[in-house]
Amino acid sequence: MVRTSLDEPVEGAEVTAELTAGDTVRQLTGTTKKDGSVTFRATVPRGIASARVTVTGVRYQDLAYYGELDPVDSLDLGRPTGNHG
Fold first, then answer.
1. How far out from the chain centre does Cα 81 lie?
2. pTM of the prediction?
3. Mean pLDDT, the chain, whole residue set
């Protein structure tokens, strides 16, 4: 979640990230919702057992983002279920 220094959620911030899965790196972008969260959608190829998401930037007006000081502290992963032939 993107929050201000007063711990208020930031709606409308652009978040960029990189998804590394196997030998593939994908650039992801998303915009924060009212609660400050952002959703990225990506597909990891079959057979890849692990992936890493690294936030590379957050932009919103003059809001400063320092990756070394503001680490991502939660990540919810959704995985589709079922058989997709």
1. 21
2. 0.74
3. 81
